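[User] I have long wanted to understand how a fold can be written as tokens. Those tokens are not coordinates but codes from a learned vocabulary of shapes. Could you go through the record with me and say what the backbone is doing? Thank you; the sequence and its tokens follow:
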Amino acid sequence: MIRMAQLALAPLGIPTQEQVRRVIEAVKKNAASPFFGERRTNNVDGPAPTFSRDRLWYVLTGCLLTTRQRSTRGSPVDRFMHKEPFPLALSRMEPGRVSVLVLSEIEQFHGIRLGPTIANRAEANFQTLSCEGWLAAETNYKSLLEQRKRTPVPSDKTAERAAAHWVSGPRKTDTGRR
């Protein structure tokens, strides 16, 4: 498996022939996998999803839950994410009480680690979204949607990177260090 660090671009952002060869090799090797097929359908070939605040919150929460713990089929995180109704649905969140609800649900479920960290980060995400974050998310979505309606061009990476940067936010640990 090729790791992202192994694919770092050469100076000036121009990939080396070896890097190109390794990416092509990785794509060919995994092209028939169900994961690759699903990702291609959802992210490249299929229709673009509609923007939904509920869905974005679900995905962001899933990112928090899957950090540093297994999320494979049948794992506690997988079972939690597929509970109906979803215990951490956006409609259940209340300003100033997000971390309390998230921690309570995680602790009641059992088997999910890092509950306090996940709860605090969910609270921070909720606050960010509530303070013009929803507008930024929708603006990034609309930009990417317009790109997806046409044949890709090299300059598309600008909007894609801007959206990725916005979603990733500041990467700080609980100690506040980067």
Observations:
- The mean pLDDT is 84.
- The helical segments are 17-30, 34-45, 53-66, 76-81, 98-109, 115-148, 156-168.
- The longest helix spans residues 115-148.
- Residues 4-45 form one domain.
